[in-house]
UniProtKB/TrEMBL annotation:
<protein>
    <submittedName>
        <fullName>Cobalt ECF transporter T component CbiQ</fullName>
    </submittedName>
</protein>
<keyword id="KW-0812">Transmembrane</keyword>
<dbReference type="InterPro" id="IPR003339">
    <property type="entry name" value="ABC/ECF_trnsptr_transmembrane"/>
</dbReference>
<feature type="transmembrane region" description="Helical">
    <location>
        <begin position="24"/>
        <end position="40"/>
    </location>
</feature>
<keyword id="KW-1133">Transmembrane helix</keyword>
<keyword id="KW-0472">Membrane</keyword>
<dbReference type="InterPro" id="IPR012809">
    <property type="entry name" value="ECF_CbiQ"/>
</dbReference>
<feature type="transmembrane region" description="Helical">
    <location>
        <begin position="242"/>
        <end position="264"/>
    </location>
</feature>
<dbReference type="InterPro" id="IPR052770">
    <property type="entry name" value="Cobalt_transport_CbiQ"/>
</dbReference>
<keyword id="KW-1003">Cell membrane</keyword>
<feature type="transmembrane region" description="Helical">
    <location>
        <begin position="117"/>
        <end position="142"/>
    </location>
</feature>
<dbReference type="Pfam" id="PF02361">
    <property type="entry name" value="CbiQ"/>
</dbReference>
Length: 267
């Protein structure tokens, strides 16, 4: 059965046995620094720190980091472009009151204000995504679910997340097997055939996922399932040194960002 590359990396990573709380402190701290402080220089510093942490001490393959960032980057770039383009901005000389525009395409224009907002949004989003990947690439999902249960998150929420996670592997395996069968029958030979095969693949996967979810629900009901499927937690290593180093790194990021922002504002 096919697996998630980022989850496989978390299982095989150097931080596999490290306590979830320790890793969450570093990851969520980086997220807060990236989102709360001004985008320059906090966001580039957080992004660089996150990459160094993942490919350095955590030993996450750089190729995996790039692959994991590829899909979020599509949404980040689309969001940045939508912010950069303003609707109805006045060009120079039109009424004398509108902001100047770098470019104009009918009612659409890119102004200095919209471009600055787009760059800031993109920087925040990239840095925050890399900070979240620090936790995602070093912590298997089963450990995250166990940590949520220890934090007294309602069992219903944890079980929905657990079942959804397990169903992902079923869907990926179904997509792979159906697509291989279609490719063996030349289902992707040509543009029209590819579109038809892609539609049939989507319909088959949706139907199979619905049937598998129904069978899973019936199986759980037949086993007397009522609230939660509790499993034995794995032993994890808590490290005061790791926590101390994480706090020092976060403090240095905050101090350096504020110092650069102050110097930039003073000049």
């Amino acid at each position: 059965m096919a697996g998630l590359a980022i989850d496989d990396a978390a299982w095989a990573g150097a931080w596999r046995t490290r306590a979830v709380g320790d890793k969450a402190l570093l990851s969520l701290g980086l997220v807060l620094v990236a989102l709360v402080l001004p985008p320059w220089p906090a966001s580039p510093l957080v992004a660089l720190t996150s990459v160094i942490v993942m490919v350095g001490p955590a030993r996450v393959p750089p190729s995996l980091v790039l692959r994991a960032l590829r899909a979020p980057m599509a949404f980040i770039v689309a969001s940045g472009l939508s912010v950069a383009v303003s609707v109805g901005a006045q060009a120079p000389g039109e009424g004398g009151a509108g902001p100047s525009a770098y470019g104009r395409w009918g009612p659409l224009a890119v102004t200095p204000e919209s471009l600055e907002a787009a760059v800031g949004l993109t920087a925040h989003a990239v840095a925050g995504t890399l900070a979240v990947l620090v936790l995602a690439s070093t912590t298997p999902m089963v450990d995250l679910l166990a940590a949520l249960r220890r934090l007294r998150v309602p069992d219903a929420c944890v079980e929905v997340a657990s079942l959804t996670y397990r169903l992902l592997f079923v869907l990926m395996d179904a997509v792979r097997s159906i697509r291989e069968a279609q490719a063996g029958r030349l289902g992707y030979h040509g543009h029209r055939a590819s579109l038809r095969s892609a539609g049939m693949l989507t319909a088959a996967v949706l139907t199979r996922s619905w049937d598998r979810a129904r069978r899973m629900e019936e199986g759980l009901a037949g086993r007397g399932y009522e609230s939660a499927l509790v499993t034995l937690p794995r032993e994890q290593q808590r490290s005061g040194g790791f926590v101390a180093v994480s706090l020092v790194v976060l403090a240095l990021l905050v101090a350096s960002s504020m110092a650069v922002s102050t110097l930039g504002g003073g000049s």
